[in-house]
Prior knowledge:
Radius of gyration: 21 Å
Number of strands: 14
Order of helices and strands: EHEEHHEHEEEEEHEHEEEHHHE
Strand content: 15-25%
Distance between the termini: 19 Å
Structural class: alpha+beta
Helix content: 25-40%
Number of helices: 9
Oligomer: single chain
Amino acid sequence: VVNRFGICYHAASLVGAQGAQNMPNEDALVADVPLRTHPTLALFAAIDGHCGPAAAARIQDLLPRAVASAVTRNAGVEGRLSAEALADGMGAVVLTEALEKLDADLCASPDCEHCGAVACVVLLWRTMPYNTDARSSLERTSSVGNDQAINTPRRGVRFGDPATLQGICATVGDSRAVLLQDQLKGPGSHRNGVDATFLTGLHRLNVPSERKRIAKLRGETRMRGGEQRIFGLSVSRALGDAFVKRADKGFTGTPELSSVFSMGPSDAIIMATDGLWDFCTEGQACRAWMNARNANAPKRWDDVSSSSKAAASDAANSLIALKKSRRDDASVLVIAPLKFA
């Protein structure tokens, strides 16, 4: 999908064995661009339900409204949050408030007493308006002997300047997002100059940091030694699952927040449920994006929109093809600036 916010995105899903037996897909994706009444914001989410699709479907329906309400509530009389305020901490406040309210609503609902969902949520914002007129950002120059125009940015124009697109990620559970950034200079560059980084940690009971968090809450004393699941769940955080939270074992719906990040013209975000990440590393995700980006590099000024869309589509489809097991559903969402360099 291409939009006036200045980003493109593509989703792909593969139903697991339960779906093959006429069981509903427990995964859900959200792409609200722009976010309701906030034209400078965009919201994305990868949601994975368990014990039925009810919780995931409810989060998919209510999340955009919850985040938009949190923005309005914290914006004051102006009715909007500036890019500076979002980067200085309000982005984290908005996502935390929205997810904690969703968790409370789910736990209070009889329909979600014994079911829940994990979620990875990304909020993006622009620090300046997106210029939809490609002609105003590019100058056309022709090479001798070539009837096709070769386009280069005008001097002083940074096509898709990283400073114009920023974001923050919040996760609850094992749906996660990888940020792919060009790092063409410096000692940290790798994978052909692209740095691939999970924006948040993994929230499972076999992860030491999560066991440490649970121990601080005295939840560890209520778990048997070496226990890797709580009432059949391997995750240590989720939205809903009210009966699990009442067991007071450190199971929570409080999200983990990433640092604020910037996106450049060749960067991308890959969001997915654990049906993909259980079989795909961040390195494989990086290669899928690099291959798709290189295969769809624009050759003319009027190719940039279609090239970005094709790259996102190819990357999403190649990633979903990496799924090696049909036991679990898998969903992936690839997001990229509309005009990559």
